[in-house]
Design goal:
The chain is an alpha/beta fold and about 375 residues long. About 40% of the residues lie in helices and about 10% in strands. The C terminus is likely disordered.
């Protein structure tokens, strides 16, 4: 008689509670009235959630088109993931910090980043607070407590944990949210961040947008665990799996995790299952590595359509209202782009002045050599 291997990993049944997704709003936009009421969201707050999601969709459509026209250099859209972004951001307090991954810029705008500053950052013009030194889609806003992202996968997570540890030491009544994609869970920084957060019980919530693709690597090749949320078990922290296309469930899970952190309960790991409807970025072609019939199947799970049906059932917004709101947001994005495209580039001297207090002579010489190639003067020397 054979004996099982000690510690043998056994597959979970398909109906195991550990694999189930938290859901309030189903794919038809139907929700239990009591569950919605328990969230405490009024009609205007529900409409604000939808507006935040729709703005992301409209921005993505317009700005990706501009990239294809050569008017901006790079763009990374969040199409299909709007519910996770807005649902989790809406549950935060004004003093909470967001440490983003790649697709959370809509959360910054939702929390107060002016659309004009976001467009300026994408264009890298003189209105960009980074003076064109960052890649497009890398905004940051101190006012909205949204930290500038890093393109290096997973490196933001130890930062989020460190910020939360500082809050614990200073007694700051706030939390930090560290966003990540499924690919980041395979990075060493993920282990460092979650291990420290679990040991020291810091007020941080990790939100993994599992859109099932780390560029061209499917999630099935990233982990042998039944779910990504299972990884949190090893770090001794609570975890939750949520339907990432359900904005209400994302809001509910984040609110619970935030209250736990504020009460001293430590970190939480949230896996939001969603799908990347478009390419990883404007530099990617997903048709080369994935079955796009699966993508088509996910279109029926569109997070915006779910909310539209809910709002229609509640008498908050009908089809004509949806069309009017979309047109208004599209006009806003178009007008903002038109205004920012008229703004010139940052001063040429900003190439070095933000790095050196006293600009070295060899860089002064190089700047002078750029003058014939530039439409703007090098400018008067202001430092050194």
């Amino acid at each position: 008689m054979s004996c099982p291997i000690p510690g043998e990993v056994r597959p979970l049944a398909e109906d195991d509670p550990a694999l189930q997704l938290r859901q309030i709003l189903n794919e038809e936009g139907e929700a239990d009235a009591g569950a919605v009421a328990a969230l405490g969201l009024g009609r205007q707050e529900l409409l604000r959630l939808y507006r935040g999601m729709l703005l992301i969709r409209v921005m993505d459509e317009r700005l990706m088109s501009l990239q294809r026209q050569g008017r901006i250099g790079f763009y990374g859209e969040a199409r299909g993931q709007e519910a996770t972004i807005i649902g989790t951001a809406a549950a935060l307090g004004e003093r909470d910090y967001i440490v983003p991954a790649l697709r959370e810029a809509g959360a910054a705008i939702f929390r107060g980043l002016p659309l004009r500053l976001y467009i300026a950052q994408i264009l890298g013009n003189a209105n960009d607070v980074c003076k064109g030194h960052q890649m497009p889609c890398h905004p940051g806003t101190r006012a909205a407590r949204y930290v500038t992202m890093s393109s290096c996968v997973g490196t933001q997570l130890p930062h989020a944990t460190g910020m939360a540890y500082a809050m614990r030491l200073t007694g700051d009544e706030a939390i930090v949210v560290g966003y990540l994609g499924d690919g980041a869970t395979a990075q060493a920084d993920f282990h460092v961040a979650l291990n420290f957060a679990g040991v020291w019980r810091v007020p941080v919530v990790f939100v993994c947008q599992n859109n099932q693709w780390a560029i061209s690597t499917p999630v099935t090749l990233q982990s042998a665990a039944p779910t990504l949320a299972h990884r949190a078990v090893a770090y001794g922290m609570p975890w939750a799996r949520v339907d990432g296309n359900d904005v209400l469930a994302c809001y509910a899970v984040m609110r619970e995790a935030r209250m736990r952190a504020l009460a001293g309960g430590g970190p939480t790991f949230i896996e939001a299952l969603t799908y990347r409807m478009g390419a990883h970025s404007s530099s990617d072609d997903p048709s080369r590595y994935r079955d796009e019939s699966v993508t088509e199947a996910w279109r029926s799970k569109d997070p915006l359509r779910r909310v539209e049906r809910l709002l229609e059932r509640m008498g908050i917004l009908d089809a004509a209202g949806v069309a009017a709101l979309r047109a208004s947001l599209d006009d806003e994005v178009r007008e903002t782009v038109a205004a920012e495209e008229q703004v010139g580039p940052p001063p040429l001297r900003s190439l070095v002045e933000d790095v050196f207090h006293a600009v070295p002579p060899h860089l002064e010489e190089q700047l002078a050599e750029l003058l014939p190639l530039s439409r703007q003067p090098v400018g008067a020397r202001t430092h050194g």
